[in-house]
# Entry
Amino acid sequence: MDLEFRNLKYTVKSPLKKGKPRVVVKGVDGRFSSGQLVAIMGPSGAGKSSLLNAISGYRSAGVTGELLVNGQPRNEHQFQRSSCYITQEDLLQPLLTVREAMDVAARLKLPKGAKGHADEILQELGLLEHQHTKTDRLSGGQKKRLSIALELVNNPPVFFLDEPTSGLDTVTTVQCVKLLKQLARQGRTVVCTIHQPAASLLELFDQVYVIADGRCIYQGDTAAMVPHLQSVGLPCPRHYNPADFIIELTENPAIIDVLCEEMMNGKLYKSAKLDAPLAVAETSQITNAMDLKICYQSEVDSAEKEIMLTNEKCTYKVPEYQENSGSISSSSSQISQENSSLAWMKVHKTEDSGSYATTYCQQFSILLCRMVLQIFRNRQGLWIQLIHHIMCGLLIGICFFNMANDGTQMFNHLKLCVGLVIFFAYTQIMVPVLVYPQEVKLVKKEHFNRWYSLTPYYAALTVSKLPVQVTLNVLFCTIVYFMVGVPFAVARFVAFCLIGNVVSLVAEGMGLAIGSIFNVRNGCAIGPSSIAPFLGLAIYGFDFAHRIPLVMNILMKTSFIRCGVVAMVLTIFGFDRQPLECNDVYCHFAKPDVLLKYLDIERTSVWLELITMLGIMFVFRSLCFIGLRWRFAT
# Structure
């Protein structure tokens, strides 16, 4: 698949300059041929990653211009199914082994019943001996290879990589680039950004695209870059790294203008043999015939491809090219893919397949199993949560020990109810605020690479947390319930535990909504501050309830903490509870009805408050879903 772009612009809105958007990529042209390893180079801030994001479709907002595949206008949905994007940061599921990560990828990216080739892929990438190692224990180079292996499961013909050598040592960097070159030699289009490679590393790339100040200053064969610079009066000193030299040239804006004008901002392609306009240049057409048959059948050149399809095997041969010709040098390479290749072809042949290899139900089931496995593998986290709930339950039980049946402790009863609801709220809101922003990055990459849709992922995310969360909440409620001396009744105990779980679900939904939009630093400030108004509305009016205006009564209903406190008071003092014990001569609040009337909550019910909290929970969960949609679209 040959990629081409014309007059490509990428505009972003600057938060510092209101109303003045900044053009990051300035109307560049370019072409990336299949079978070639392409490097996008440039100084920091030149627009390398922005160009890669625009070409790959990873960023669509603010992108204008023509994007073509094999000379034809690009179908974005079809192109996304035929390409993959590997981010600079190695985003992997930390608690899965290499084998488990590959199995999950195969189950999501291949149709049900299709046979994967995890062993072959891991063997090729040198990861087979580490297949039982957890991903968070891999080295930097191994993580990068695993990221590539996960996308090779369905054999996409186009690879985009953002700074694949970032953070790697010299030896690992060379191994990574050689691996990418091997993938390109098998007929794929491999495009990656790289900052300033060494001279020996630069020679491994077939094509270089240099960008500076958002404009193209060179595009063409790597071997033709130095002669081109010399032809415009900028000779590269002998024994000098050409990559360093051209990057240093970009420090002078006048030189950028000259080089950009010479290349016509990317409209020319510098070959080791000749220079040609982009629109009519003849380029190498080494392509993955199987993938082209799927998406762009008419573009396959039969003179260069030999396709042999059987029921279980698809083989293609890459023609040989002479190394001194300036083109790709490669011996015949052969890729064998059995049922998975044919199944992949069936899925991607039609456009009514929903863009995914599996159904929503299958995605939900696979993701749910993965999430539950990760939750129970995080034993340290489970122990921390268990100890936290038990210790807090014992502490609250000791502070309010046997007070719930004392008619003289009315204010302590209210403190108990408020304290319980605040415990559930703060415990559940901060965990997703701190943890979820990192997961959002991983989910965005997997969603963009067409692993799964957002709807089944969100459903699996919600369901997977319930078993542990409900169990710990019930354990906490049981400890508190019996230590504070609330009279036992099945309905009262069930309502007591139900209120705690609903409050925790609402708070978790609020935390997920914050974590889906903000990063950890901002979320740590927004989380506690956003819950403060709900807390203020929760305690407002308990000592002068009959003087609260109607508007304030309506506003207080929007506080899930208020609803939780009211429901907790109704649970402890409702359900036809008998009068409380009174050791004094007179206890004004010994009768539960008196307390409920004084607080002006006798006209409501536990179930009405629960329904209100469920409505608030639905709002927060919807905001989280919308936040994820917004993050994935930007």
